[in-house]
């Protein structure tokens, strides 16, 4: 994990050079390119809620994961690709700027930025302080990310 200011000074017209971004880059353990940034905008630990921006580098992923609680998102820039896989089908969604969604949690998926990357706002409700399960290719939990991980900068590649 690298703490840095994003190379982009603006996100959808919003000046972001004062925001502290955490860069997360994958390791050889993963078979897909992981390169994304996270900027925490607000946290309500007592309510179990966190709001943050995610910025994907072009054609790069975040970790294969499952949201544990309800999640609201808004695509701000680029193409946000989501690939959901169930026992019977794989669905590839391409979300454009302005796409807004509320999901109940529990969905297993891959997310990545398109050819120009992507910037997405997320508001996530934690379950007992837990936000996401990072998964191996076989669906086994590698690690569970918490609100504290986001706030303290403990996110890892």
Question: How would you characterize this protein structure?
Answer:
This protein has 157 residues and is mainly beta. It has one domain (2-152): Jelly Rolls, CATH 2.60.120.10. Helix content is 4%, strand content 56%. The chain is built from one helix and 13 strands. The chain has one helix at 147-152, and strands spanning 2-4, 10-11, 14-15, 21-25, 35-44, 49-56, 65-67, 71-85, 90-95, 100-103, 108-125, 130-135, 141-146. The strands form two sheets. Strands 1, 4, 5, 6, 7, 8, 9, 10, 11, 12 and 13 form an eleven-stranded antiparallel β-sheet that branches. Strand 5 and strand 6 (49-56) form a beta hairpin. The longest helix has 6 residues, at 147-152. The termini are close together. The model is unreliable at 1-7 (pLDDT under 50).
Summary of the model, kept short:
The chain is mainly β and about 160 residues long. It is about 5% helix and about 55% strand.
Note poorly predicted spans. Answer: 1-7
Work out the strand percent: over 45%
**Termini Cα gap:** 6 Å
The CATH homologous superfamily is termed Jelly Rolls
Structural class: mainly beta
Largest sheet: 11 strands, antiparallel
Rounded mean pLDDT is: 88
Number of domains: 1
- Per the CATH scheme, the topology name is Jelly Rolls
Helix content: under 10%
């Amino acid at each position: 994990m690298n703490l840095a200011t994003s190379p982009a000074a603006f996100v959808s017209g919003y000046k972001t050079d004062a925001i502290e971004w955490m860069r997360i880059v994958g390791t050889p353990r993963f078979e897909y390119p992981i390169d994304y940034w996270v900027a925490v905008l607000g946290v309500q630990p007592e309510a179990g809620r966190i709001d943050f921006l995610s910025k994907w580098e072009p054609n790069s992923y975040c970790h294969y994961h499952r949201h544990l609680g309800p999640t609201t998102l808004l695509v701000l820039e680029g193409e946000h690709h989501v690939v959901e896989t169930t026992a019977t089908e794989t669905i590839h969604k391409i979300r454009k700027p302005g796409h807004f969604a509320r999901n109940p949690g529990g969905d297993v998926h891959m997310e990545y930025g398109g050819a120009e990357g992507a910037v997405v706002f997320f508001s996530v409700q934690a379950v007992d302080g837990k936000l996401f399960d990072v998964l191996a290719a076989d669906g086994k939990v590698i690690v569970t990310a918490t609100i504290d991980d986001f706030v303290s900068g403990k996110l890892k590649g």
